[in-house]
Write a structure and sequence with these properties.
alpha+beta; 65 residues; single chain; 1 helix
Amino acid sequence: VSKKPTEVRMGKGKGSVEFWAAKVKPGRIMFEIDGVTDAVARQALELGAAKLPIKCKIVTRQGEG
C-alpha cells in the first residue's frame, strides 16, 4: 500500500510504499515445515502464530511417512 507524505499536492506520480498487505482466506495453509521433529515444528509455529494478527490453527498430515 502506497502513501504520499502529508501536505503534498495531488499528482506527480505514486507515493512510496508505506506497508505490504496480503489477503488470507479462512482455511488457507500458510506454512509447511519438514525435516524436524513434531515438537520443534509445533513450537516454531506457535511462536510464529503469536506474531500474526489472525487466529491460527496447527494441523498435521496423517499417514505420511
